[in-house]
Design goal:
This protein is α/β, with parallel strands linked by helices. The strands form 2 sheets. A 7-stranded parallel sheet has the order 3-2-1-4-5-6-7, sandwiched between helices. A 6-stranded parallel sheet has the order 10-9-8-11-12-13, sandwiched between helices. Helix 1 crosses helix 15. The two termini are 12 Å apart.
Amino acid sequence: MTAKQPLLLLAAGGTGGHMFPAQALAEAMLSRGWRVKLSTDLRGARYSGGFPAEVKIETLASSTFARAGAIAKLSVPFLILFGVVNSLISMLRDPPSVVVGFGGYPSIPALTAALLLRRPRMIHEQNGVLGRVNQLFVKHVERLACGTWPTVLPAGVSGVHVGNPVRAKVLERAGAGYIAPGDYPMSILVIGGSQGARILSDLVPPALAELPIAHLKHLRISHQARTEDIPRVADFYTNHGIEAEVQSFFNDIPRRMSEAQLVISRAGASSIADISVIGRPSILIPLGSAIRDEQTANARALVAANAAVLVPEQGLTVPGLSTVIADFLSAGAKATPMANAALRCAMPDATDRLMALVEGLAEALPEGDRQ
């Protein structure tokens, strides 16, 4: 009887910041002969379209206190408990060799079940500050892998710096040749992440419209906006004669980023990783409402390396942002060193480092518990 291939269970929440590193690890582990399953909720399943077809998607009940109303909050523990029970049943039927959590409330059921069944488990924290769920589990896992360094950790907890894995399509564009701003067509990529695109939709289009015509006439914009903001953002660009594509999600972000002279972005960990691996100058606007201010921590390395300009959200104005953009487009000689500096901050082997930790945990299993 042929032994089953080892099973890796990925548990990830419903944002690209959690799902993209999980996708990168899934791609790599499949190539090493592992089976891979993704445990998430309905919101997270929307981001699973990029996962390889071989990955089994397991959608479990979960919820968060942060977005629930007063009455809905009462149901959150029961939804999570229901998810834990289903995850326990699934693991008893097909025990995973390793469980890796990437944060977000949808990772709670799988990590809790793995803890109860004593399956090898680890978490990967993308940001420079631990998220709520990873704080909950950090003392109950065998390994903590850190995407941003240094990561603020509780006393007595140590982490391994592996970097943030990027998807295969990003790696294909790693170190893509950069063309500095000049008197020719230029591209700007505007990406806001799932929680922070609105302020960029409010400020970036008018900031671009205030640029000198010498810059404006050459620009092509790719702007990621919330679905409800797309009509007004697209209309603004059209009414001001600015060539722009406005979508809620770009499936070809790696291509657009590799063709961009400048990236204007929130400072989410996955965005920082993509910017670094491809090597692009950026203007970073950390999410001002983040309780732990993790996005400022994420941006620290790029800013310190002179690869990015940090613009705090508090006090940000259209004229101020327009000035920052204009200064960048006017100083073409600084752009290429910024792109090169971003590349020096990259960890393109982050997936390999994370994969080595997973395989190390699997090898530590008693032989009778291995698949």
